[in-house]
Amino acid sequence: MPPKYPPGRPLSPKTYEVYSRGQRNMLLPCSVPGCCKSRFGVAPICSAHLYHRNRYGHALGVPISPRDLHPVASLVVPFLSRNADHAAVKAAAEFFSNWLHAASSGHEVPARKEMAHLEGFGVTGTQLLEAATSCWVYSRWNPGRLPDDVRLTFALALCVFRVAPPKRAGVRWRAERVGKAGGKTAYGYRQPNYQCIPTTARRDAGELIRARLGLFLMNVTAALEAEDTAENNVRKALATGFTLTGSTLTGFKPTTPAPQRGEETQQ
């Protein structure tokens, strides 16, 4: 039996077909393994996983906060500072600088509004390079949390956009809830609303970064791993114990053995 028309004015045959398909689809469970929620509309996943897919590029995507990137950034930023005169570092920073300038000038570039917003806050290309490199290295060292797929593409864009504060879209009043009945008090607080970055802007910006700077980011990761390996070898060498030759320690003069207790009494 086909579903009935929704309340309101009648729908066109094409719209009714989409509505009917969505009603039938909502009777099925979410296609994500382990999720028992109902599907949302005509999507094959529930509303919660659909939110994650639109925001992080994948139904199982998770947010990567600045706190997660801080340990990696503490290694990436000094590395880029030490190699600021390297040709690759200069070219990568210039790529972000040209992108910012083109967006602020009104040219059609990926994520134009978001990059123009960063330009308005005085963000430099070096800052964006540090954010993108930290996100890439974090993905290489934590593949379980941020795999190298579309999730990394979205994360690269979000880390770059997060360098400057987000755009504010007004203020809303949030009242405090009290009691089990869910009543609201007369006191509350003002909470700012921020504009959500479109999914298209995140995808386009992330794909552009991967296409232009993918090889550079891989080289930076390899250099950091080489430095870490060298430091570990030094620590391992310092922690190596000395070898014993007979009853003496190599490199020291031999000493006469102390007399035993029985020998002292005989003397």
- Between the first and last Cα atoms, what is the distance in angstroms? 114 Å
Number of strands: 4
In the predicted model, the low-confidence regions spanning at least 5 consecutive residues are 177-186
What's the story with the biggest beta sheet?
2 strands, antiparallel
Describe the structure.
This protein has 267 residues and is mainly alpha-helical. It has 2 domains: 1-59, no CATH class; 62-167 and 200-233, no CATH class. It contains 9 helices and 4 strands. Helix 4 (87-104) crosses helix 6. It is extended. The model is unreliable at 177-186 (pLDDT under 50).
What can be said about this structure in brief?
With 267 residues, the protein is mostly helical. It contains nine helices and four strands, in the order αααααααββαββα.
Secondary structure topology:
Elements: H1 13-25, H2 47-56, H3 66-82, H4 87-104, H5 112-120, H6 125-141, H7 150-161, E1 168-178, E2 183-194, H8 199-238, E3 244-245, E4 248-249, H9 261-266
Antiparallel strand pairs: 1-2, 3-4
Helix pairs in contact: 3-6, 4-5, 4-6, 6-7, 6-8, 7-8
